[in-house]
Write a structure and sequence with these properties.
about 325 residues, Rossmann fold, binds S-adenosylmethionine, alpha/beta, 8-stranded mixed beta sheet, 13 strands, 2 domains
């Protein structure tokens, strides 16, 4: 049995018997005016953060949701798109698709604005998404890609890239590890399916997104997710997992490398009214300008006398330059 087969078995079980708190770090999912989340759906909140960022969801986007779980985020996406077929939710586990359908049926009774044909639940998997090239505005996945071994993660990221329209967004939430996870844990298929042992480090994770072709990555949130203690997990030192919410754009990778925004800013501290680095960045005196990490490094190296670069806040949601 491969690790992917045991993951399917595991998700079959948690579809039939919900495991409250399996993955999530937040007790209440994003609440929205006029949205009622059925309790059974909430119990199956198997995500580690959120992929539903209201500011990404203008213009009734088409969303391909990979790994439907209990249907919670598909419903939240439908809240914004509100049109027939706008959300396609893919899952290879029949019991999970059935549970999501049941929960969405309940959501139909509880939410007058919602119609079940807003969401199409289809059989499929992350490695062969059942839609044509360049056909969706958003691909989203929450707490799934982290369970994949590295070559499968590459396949899944490339597949997401394939189906996105130019400029489209891959919105993800996954655990990451603050140090590499030891091999004995990585090989534990059950822990992997539980989103506890497949996580990559932040650098490995973002590099893989860029290698799949995404030219811009924005970090929305990074926060503690789980502590793996020494006794339970046979570790020499405890290991902190974090959850990382990100949005990656299908735009060309600039010649000097992808732009990764982590909340850094550059602030001009000199005596003129503004500073022009002659590379496209104009900084007004004393006013922070959001910059990507690549630009932050360049400005700090070249103009340390004139510019202060502030550290990553791990929260960025637009604005600035690059
Ligand atoms: C940890 S759960 C997350 C569920 C949901 N995203 C949420 O936030 O509640 C992982 C989901 O991915 C599905 N899944 C497992 N293997 C998959 C694959 N190869 N491709 C797509 N989905 C998969 C599981 O059935 C399950 O619904």
């Amino acid at each position: 049995m491969t690790y992917l087969d045991s993951a399917i078995d595991f998700y079959r079980q948690v579809a039939e018997t919900p495991d409250v708190g399996l993955c999530c770090v937040q007790s209440t999912p994003l609440q929205l005016p006029g949205l009622k989340i059925p309790p059974a759906m909430q119990e199956m909140n198997y995500g580690c953060g959120t992929t539903v960022h209201p500011t990404e969801l203008y213009g009734e986007p088409s969303v391909l949701y990979v790994g439907v779980g209990g249907g919670l985020e598909a419903l939240q996406f439908a809240y914004f798109s509100r049109r027939v077929g706008a959300i396609i939710a893919v899952d290879p586990v029949p019991e999970m698709r059935q549970a999501a359908r049941r929960n969405l049926e309940q959501a139909t009774s509880d939410n007058p604005w919602f119609s079940p044909d807003f969401i199409q639940i289809v059989e499929g998997d992350a490695f062969a998404l059942p839609v044509p090239d360049a056909s969706v505005d958003v691909v989203a996945q929450n707490c799934l890609f982290n369970i994949f071994e590295p070559t499968d993660l590459n396949r899944a990221l490339k597949e997401a890239f394939r189906v996105l329209k130019p400029g489209g967004r891959l919105i993800m939430s996954d655990p990451i590890a603050t140090q590499p996870i030891p091999e004995h844990l990585q090989k534990d298929d059950r822990l992997r399916a539980m989103c506890l042992s497949g996580a990559l480090t932040y650098e490995q994770y973002t590099q893989r997104i860029i290698q799949a072709g995404f030219g811009q990555v924005e970090i929305r949130t990074r926060r503690p997710y789980r502590l793996l203690d020494r006794q339970t997990y046979g570790l020499e030192t405890e290991l902190l997992l974090e959850s990382l919410d990100s949005v990656s754009f299908k735009v060309e990778i600039p010649e000097d490398g992808a732009c990764v925004f982590t909340g850094k800013t550059a602030i001009y501290k000199g005596s003129e009214a503004y500073f022009d680095d002659r590379a496209g960045h104009i900084l007004s005196r004393g006013i922070p300008l959001a910059v990507c990490d690549k630009t932050a490094t360049k400005l700090a190296a070249k103009f340390s006398e004139a510019i202060v670069v502030t550290p990553s806040t791990w929260h960025y949601d637009g604005g600035g330059c690059c």
